[in-house]
Amino acid sequence: MLALGAVTAAVGLALLALLVPAASVRLAPFFWADLVAFAGLAWSSARCRRRLNRRPPVTLLDVFQEHVRRRPCWPLLLFQDEVYTYEEVERWSNRAARAFSRRLELRLGQTVAVFLPNEPTYVWTWLALAKLGCPMACLNCNARGRALRHALGAAGATLLLASPELQAAVEEVLPALEQDGVRVFYLSSTSPTPGVEALLPAIEAASDEPLPAHHRAGITANSKAIYIYTSGTTGLPKAAVITEMKLMMVANLGRLCGLRPDDIIYTTLPLYHSAGLLIGLGGCFEVGATCVLRAKFSASQFWDDCRRYNISVIQYVGELMRYLCNTPKRDNDREHGVRLALGNGLRAEVWKDFLQRFGPISIWEFYGATEGNAGFINYTGKIGAVGRANMFLKSFAPFELIKYNVEDDEPVRDERGLCIRVRPGETGLLVIKITKNTPFHGYAGDSQKTEKKVLRDVLVKGDAFFNSGDLLMIDHERFVYFQDRVGDTFRWKGENVATTEVEATLAMVNFIQEVNVYGVSVPGCEGRCGMAAIRLKPGASFEGKDLYAFTGDTLPSYATPRFVRIQDALEITGTFKQCKGNLVKEGFDLNVIKDPLFFRDDKKKSYVPLNPDTYAAILDMKLNL
Where is the AMP-binding enzyme C-terminal domain (predicted)? Predict the structure, then answer.
């Protein structure tokens, strides 16, 4: 992030720009956009630092409470038919904080885990814990068993606040949690589980008067505010540390992208994820806007909700936009008030389809990891890009794209042991320098995993960079494009295969609804062979010859999937990230997989059912792939 001095620098650059000849600007057509974006980012960063450097510091909670004082009757939260004003949410959170303090005996710095679906309770619980100076661990509602118990332990949480909707998940681990010394409570009127208390009666009976300031004494910019868990697409989730400073910075992303106090933002993303909680809801806290919260995303009801609630800003992530484009077309597709879409993971072909179908919505794509120390924003609207590596940004948030050996799963180093920068147009691993302005706080309770994300001796001996684990490309105009994740890219026939590129190509096939591409091990072969799990469009059938011809025309031979697996539903996380772990593990094993499997047969020029004879020939290395 950017230091206070960045503001002075930005102003100086702006004055200098006035002296730049018009011809020079023509040679750099994005100069002004770059400068304006950088100045906005610098100002936002300085503003956050100025707030948190005060005594006492002004946190996002304080910013929210300022909106309560200024506009108490302004709606903060719309949920189904319910409306909660800023003042009502403030009062609910005061009651909850007093009940938590008295009944749970919470103390400053004590971590409390919340296991709640998207509902208003989540909002006032977050604020209540913030008023007590207690970090909130945001558990994934889909976590079960070992993963749920691990998540609690990772954040050091000794208290679990849960919803009765998740009763089965709670009761599954309850004996183990009691053994671990974790106390469990339901945030409801009654408890469905013997021995677990329901806290809502105590909350409703508590005073709604503001809490004394001493509850938050000692809070600083570096205090832990929230723990957000990685999606868990591979292995057990890790608890990323979100400090008060980072919370404030991320909440300002909406403002940087044009979020205004009169906006109504539609959040269908889970609040246990940083996009929904920090950018969506946190963005409303920052600017004083209204958030429409939905329990779960529904493609069929999305635009009806936008019209019902007069939505002006929508959030997206992952494949959400593709789901919207895959719904049946309606005559009123363009009848809505949405002016802005904010999110990440939007592929170029879906971007174009979305705009063509739903109208000229301003799309602000960004790139960043929950635990990351910097990111990019596509402030020019360049289709397919995640941002720009402009000349100003790099001076204050240093980053590099370095050569990466996919097969060895490590950066390529020169004879000095240092990493090698890639050239424009080449794919490289994104690493971001760890500095005072761009700190990396890592993961709670796991120093080894934190250290694993730090790459040392990158440009000079002794330096340290955050390893994003993502492969990006910067073109000759300095636009940044996401290519793939390190674990997803695989090597075959001596070439690197980017799964996202293959997925984007296969998604154009008329009978494919969704696709997930990955690499599988084949006996006697180096690297991993391409395989695609696909879900067919309703009423469509798999056309092996058509797919063979299409992939032959659109993909290089090394990137063409040799195996296809037909599934009724593709496994995804709560934030629409595709899960590849189980698919890779099962490979093309006929003894394990019950789904229809197909093999690319070059003789028949078609994808044909994988039969036992062909499967045996592959295992015996008698069939050349």
Answer: 501-577
